[in-house]
Each structure stands twice: as structure tokens, then as C-alpha cells.
Design brief:
4 helices
């Protein structure tokens, strides 16, 4: 992976981690699509909430297996998602550090590392089952819904 792609991936992972924490707090997640500028280009992708919403709208996708392994300084998780409609399945994985590293150079234990690992592995498994054309259509639809909501809130 090139450096620009690595930075984009890190930014999207951070946003998904923030969504996972909000979900754990019982908050409603409404950011289905990430859209931001990175190194002069627009990056667009599905968030954790967007992946779950796509799976819901497609219907019949369930995570049937989730295995967690303590590998010392991280949690490793693998999950299997199945599309009940056609029987296809995909695996997703995640290795989540047990510590949070701060930009300042310090670090601290991440009390939510296990939940992040499980959610990310599930996200990766579900995402792998979603057809790319469907994802593109849903991203366009989510962005249009967001634009309409923003326009609705503007004064005439």
C-alpha cells in the first residue's frame, strides 16, 4: 500500500473506532459515509454504521461466527458473515492493539480494544459480502439523503 492509501485507511479506522465507541454508549449512528479530503483528493467510503445499514437494506446477512484470541499486546478477531439468500459467506479479521497511542508519543490502555476488534472483524466480514455496485449505489444514496437533509435545514 502506498503512503497516501495508508493515511486514508488510518483516518477511516479512527472514524470507525469513534463510531464503535458511540454505539457502545447507546448513541444512534447516522454517519453512513465518510467523505473527506486527504492529500488533495476526496476519499469516500462506508462507515461501520453504513456497512450495517447496507446489510440491513440488502437483507439476510448475519454474522454466524466470531472468534477472539488474546495475542499479548492485541486482540485478534475473525468473524464469518453469511448471506442467507444465496448461502455465500466471507471472513473478516481485525487485530486491535490493547493500547491507544497518542500523537504526543504517549500511550494508555484501551479499555474498549476488545469491542473494537469484534466490531471491526464483523464490519470486514459483512463488507466483503456486499456487492460493489450495491455499495456504490448506497454511497450515492446516503450522500444524496445527507445533502437533502442539509438543504432542508437552510433558511429560504
Amino acid at each position: 500500500m502506498n503512503e497516501k492509501k495508508d493515511e486514508e485507511f488510518v483516518l477511516m479506522e479512527r472514524r470507525d473506532e469513534a463510531q464503535i465507541l458511540e454505539e457502545l454508549k447507546g448513541h444512534y449512528l447516522e454517519e453512513f459515509v465518510y467523505s473527506f479530503e486527504q492529500a488533495g483528493r476526496r476519499v469516500i467510503g462506508l462507515s461501520w454504521a453504513g456497512v450495517k445499514e447496507c446489510a440491513y437494506r440488502l437483507g439476510g446477512i448475519a454474522v454466524e461466527h466470531c472468534e477472539v484470541l488474546d495475542v499479548g499486546d492485541a486482540w485478534r478477531c475473525i468473524a464469518k458473515a453469511v448471506n442467507k439468500a444465496d448461502g455465500s459467506s466471507r471472513w473478516g479479521a481485525c487485530q486491535q492493539p490493547k493500547t491507544i497511542k497518542y500523537r504526543s508519543g504517549g500511550e494508555a490502555p484501551d479499555e474498549f480494544a476488545l469491542q473494537k476488534a469484534v466490531s471491526k472483524a464483523q464490519r470486514n466480514a459483512i463488507r466483503a459480502l456486499l456487492p460493489e455496485v450495491f455499495i456504490k449505489t448506497m454511497i450515492d444514496r446516503f450522500l444524496e439523503e445527507k445533502r437533502r437533509a442539509a438543504d432542508f435545514g437552510k433558511a429560504p
